[in-house]
Each structure stands twice: as structure tokens, then as C-alpha cells.
Amino acid sequence: MKVNVQTPHFVADQKLINFIQKKMDKLEKFYDHIIYADVFLKLENTSDRQNKIVEILLSVPGNELIVKKQAKSFEEGADNCAHSLERLLMRRKQKIRASA
Question: Gene3D superfamilies this protein is in (predicted)?
Fold first, then answer.
């Protein structure tokens, strides 16, 4: 799966990008027709500790799934997004099986 990581206003290190790639590759276990993933890493300009936003747009045939999470670190946010996408993909797979 092609993963496109976008980080406006800062440069992400390779370790973070590899971590996100690994999380996105695990999603193919739940649904094997994923086309691509766009990952947006944003820093919110607040004094709050949870100022990192991870937004993932996952393209599957006929639909796009979007998940957005806010956390203390980008790794934690990516992990939370991946768990939400797992649930969405399993639900989608069950709907497709039920209608077939």
C-alpha cells in the first residue's frame, strides 16, 4: 500500500515515517483492497500537552475512510488512528460479506 505522509510547517524524522508505514501495512491484514493512505501530521498552536493531530485518509474501492485523533505524541495518535481504522475496515468487510 502506498502511504503518503504530509507534515505542514515541520519536517518529520525517518523513524516516525517508518513507524506510520508499519502501522498502515498492518491494516492490510483486515482488508486487502486498500488503495492508498494519506497521513497528515499537524501541530496545533496551543499550550495544551495534547497538541499533536494525526489525520488519516484511507482509500478503499468505492469509499474513503477518514480518522482524526489528537494526542501527546504522533506515535500515540497514529496508533489510535490505526485501531479505529481496524474497526472500520472489519465492519466494512462484514457488510460486504452480508450483502454478497
Answer: Ribosome hibernation promotion factor-like
